[in-house]
Amino acid sequence: MNKRVVLVGAGHAHLHLLKNVASLIRLRSDVTIVAPDDFWYSGMATAMLAGLVSPDEVRVEIASLVAGTGAVFCRASMIGLDKDAREVVLDNGQRLAFDLLSLNLGSRPPPLPAQGQVVYSVKPVRSLVELRRRIEQAWQSPGSDVLRVAIVGGGVTGVEVAANLRALADLHRQRMQISIYNRSEPLKQLPHGAAAALLRHVRRSGIEVRWPVTVTMAGEGGVHFDDGTSDDCDVVISATGLVPPDLTRRLGLPTSGDGALVVDEYLRSAGDALIFAAGDCVAFDGFSLPRVGVYAVRQAPVLLANLCATLCDTPLTEFAPQRRFLSIIGLGHTSALMQRGPLWFKGPPALWLKRWIDHRFVEGYRT
Ligand SMILES: Cc1cc2nc3c(=O)[nH]c(=O)nc-3n(C[C@H](O)[C@H](O)[C@H](O)COP(=O)(O)OP(=O)(O)OC[C@H]3O[C@@H](n4cnc5c(N)ncnc54)[C@H](O)[C@@H]3O)c2cc1C
Question: What positions does the domain FAD/NAD(P)-binding occupy (predicted)?
Fold first, then answer.
């Protein structure tokens, strides 16, 4: 009987597995991919927000990727795991039996308490697609007021979203008031010079950066702070860092402090040798990696090799994370800041490089 391989989550790591699914199927396995949605590429999410690319250019259709391969796409969300029965529980009532399971569940900002206000989070990317649609619709109504946008979180993502919203407003010749709120000094994870250059850029674009300030709630018409005061706004965006989805804590598998699934150097769960995991939803025993797509992409070939090795009962391959990675922060239509370790550069060539890398990545998965 064929082995049942179930992949949950259409993230960066599983995208590679799906492209190379023939290597699993060749080993007498039936492969099912479970995901509620297509793959949305976060690397181009802010370019989409700025109006540089369309939402469709940021999306890879899973049905097209698996068409004709023999793998099955099950459009659903996983809501639980029955470890004893070896079944994945889905939100459509289905239970999927597995011999080998791989989880690539991604991450999202922790939920921001909200009352009477829609909060757009920076992930899933579809939320940013909806945000752009809402803003463009608001601009279509005659005599629309200046849109006031509050971004909660002054890390790299919050700043990148702010700069690209400004670019969207410029593209439409509209006015937008953008404020970033941060609990502590913004952009602390960057080298000092790079952080200063980014802050200069956003301030010159008329974006207000306020810190130290703690937003406790998004209420009707504004954001509320822990000192009892509030600011008026029309749109609230949550960019308060990325954590694994709550589901990871409910699987009965070992997790780290923020809910990441603990895996060994072979990307196997520390609690079950037939359950693998990769990307933002994992942590290694004793350390975790920054939540950037680069690691999910680098883990993908190791994950594929180890699923194949487990099916054939051959030795597994170790994942050795790189210490440094290139990160490019898009700043709208003309510029970007790229950084690797202590080195950084800001200017149009950084944006050209980002566009080239991002388009090459997405095109690699289009059929
Ligand atoms: C605005 C923004 C820009 C970014 N830009 C960059 C960048 O330029 N470069 C970079 O390296 N990193 C970037 N990142 C970080 C990057 O998004 C993540 O590190 C990366 O997405 C992690 O990939 P992943 O494979 O772990 O998960 P993801 O690619 O996020 O995929 C997770 C998948 O799991 C699915 N899923 C979740 N829960 C369930 C469930 N219960 N059942 C079934 N499926 C489920 C989701 O639908 C999704 O398809 C950015 C992040 C943001 C927010």
Answer: 4-299
How far apart CA 187 and CA 163 sit, in angstroms, is 14
Q: What number of residues does the chain have?
A: 367
CA of 187 to the centre of ligand 1 (A): 21
Structure tokens at 274: 């037939």
| Ligand 1 pocket check for 13: Cβ under 6 Å | yes
Measure 104 CA to ligand 1 centroid, in angstroms.
9
Q: Per residue in 303-346, pLDDT tens?
A: 999 999 999 999 999 999 998 999 999 999 999 999 999 999 99
Cα(276) to centroid(ligand 1), Å: 17
- pLDDT number for residue 279: 98
Give, for ligand 1, the residue of 42, 247, 357 to mutate: max count of ligand atoms closer than 8 Å to Cβ.
42
Sketch out the chain's domains with CATH numbers: 3-36+76-107+243-312 (3.50.50.60), 119-241 (3.50.50.60)
**Region for 47 from its dihedrals, namely left if φ exceeds 0, alpha if ψ lies in -120 to 50, beta otherwise:** alpha
